[in-house]
Design brief:
The protein is globular, with a radius of gyration of 20 Å. The chain starts with a helix and ends with a helix. Helix content is 79%, strand content 0%. It has a single domain, classed as Amino acid/polyamine transporter I, CATH 1.20.1740. It is mostly helical and 421 residues long. The chain is built from 18 helices and no strands. α6 crosses α15, α6 crosses α18 and α12 packs antiparallel against α14. It is a multi-pass membrane protein.
Length: 421
């Protein structure tokens, strides 16, 4: 038994790669066009503002994971602090957030691959449904966590994105960052930052694997923080370089495939092919790993009696099949029926709440650099207010749906748990 456990241990290089890949996996593919549409030429500043909060949150997650020496992320932190009810409520919101995130990755896969074949809405939906159901099936077969494959995909994806971004920077023309768009002040960077958090949340998945990480107590903080800083830098380079290549107006008009437009403008058909392959593999890997981790999270939460016992079931492949099927099907449905901006904003709001809670817990319960958490909390508070006001004025439906879900989580959850117990 001990040797089996040892063989499952994940080394520092793989942990770093998976942390960076979990953030970049599908995030930049769906975020760039949305952020440029909201913040104009200040898109890179949006990535920086949100990135500062994300890097500090990665530090807080790592410190809390080291303190409690167990997998489970924010749910486990709260549970260890004897806040079981709050842990249960936050975990339900997180599951909703991850479901929305998977939907975004499915959405991105369908649009990027369909664009390469000059396909319309029908092909996009077929591809989205195919990848959603297909990867749900792979997870049920026990193929949800293919670490070695993920490392290869992530490394190739990061390399391609950095080359694209740097190449764009060599073609610098500041007019390309705003030509054709309505002029915006730097304050709009806060609006752009508000929708980016869904693109920065991927490092959380590693906290669910904490007990499998070699020498986690020593390595987890530097690995998670350096991965987050690297991703923030990559996003800024890509935001500037890709917008330079695609042109701001084109990035907004075709925001579902903004990076493909940039690669095609840079290298023609070769760029189209390379970027499509990168986007396809990166988003598929992100769907696969996020679905696996969320399924395992539902199992752990159900085992601790904060979800109905129905979710504790594991199939013959030792996979938490019911959670995976439910989340996979819901995400696929959202991907083919929801709008990109609505899903991005709703998911970002959930992760904003989670980031805020984790930084507050780290501030109060760990020996950390306290002013860092305060910086993150101030950024998260300001951006949270900006996002809620924006949704209330411009796009109230996602806000209303999230409000209803939050009320159900807080009020209906205890009743449902009592009934299923």
């Amino acid at each position: 038994m001990g040797s089996s456990k040892s063989s499952e241990q994940i080394g520092p290089v793989k942990v770093w790669t998976l942390a960076a890949g979990g953030m970049v996996g599908g995030g930049i593919y769906i975020a760039l066009g949305v952020v440029v549409s909201l913040s104009g030429k200040w898109a890179s500043l949006s990535f920086l503002i949100a990135g500062i909060a994300a890097a500090i949150t990665a530090y807080s997650y790592a410190k809390l994971s080291n303190k409690y020496q167990s997998s489970g992320g924010a749910f486990k932190f709260l549970e260890e602090m004897q806040h079981e009810s709050l842990a249960g409520s936050l975990s339900w919101l997180l599951i909703i957030g991850y479901t929305l995130t998977i939907a975004l990755y499915i959405f991105a896969f369908g649009h990027y691959v369909a664009f390469a074949f000059d396909g319309g809405d029908m092909l996009t939906r077929i591809l989205a449904i195919g990848v959603g159901i297909g990867l749900t099936g792979l997870n049920l077969l026990g193929l949800g966590k293919m670490t070695a494959v993920e490392v290869v995909i992530v490394s190739a994806n990061l390399t391609i994105l950095l080359i694209l971004g740097v190449f764009g920077l060599t073609r610098w023309d500041s007019l390309e960052l705003s030509t054709g768009l309505e002029p915006k002040t730097p304050a709009y960077a806060l609006i752009g930052a508000a929708v980016i958090f869904v693109s920065y949340e991927g490092f959380q998945l590693l906290t669910y694997e904490y007990e499998k990480i070699k020498n986690a107590s020593k390595s987890f903080v530097p690995i998670l923080v350096s991965a987050a800083i690297f991703v923030v830098t990559t996003y800024i380079v890509v935001a500037l370089g890709a917008t330079m290549l695609a042109g701001a107006l084109k990035a907004v008009e075709q925001k579902q495939v903004a990076l493909t437009i940039a690669a095609q403008n840079a290298w023609g058909i070769t760029g189209l092919v390379i970027l499509t392959i990168a986007a396809g593999f990166a988003t598929a890997a992100a769907i696969n790993s996020t679905l696996f981790s969320t399924g395992e999270l539902t199992f752990k939460i159900a085992r601790d009696k904060e979800l109905p016992g129905w979710f504790e079931h594991r199939n013959a492949k030792d996979v938490p099949s019911r959670g995976i099927v439910l989340i996979g099907l819901l995400a696929t449905l959202l991907a083919v029926t929801g709008g990109l901006s609505s899903i991005v904003e709703a998911a970002s709001l959930i992760f904003l709440i989670t980031f805020g809670v984790v930084n507050w817990l780290a501030l109060k319960n760990t020996h950390t650099i306290k002013w860092l958490q305060w910086v993150a909390l101030v950024i998260i508070g300001i951006i949270g207010i900006v996002l809620v006001v924006r949704l209330a004025l411009v796009n109230p439906i996602p806000l209303l749906v999230l409000l209803i879900m939050s009320i159900l989580v807080l009020l209906a959850r205890p009743f449902l748990l009592d009934r299923y117990r």
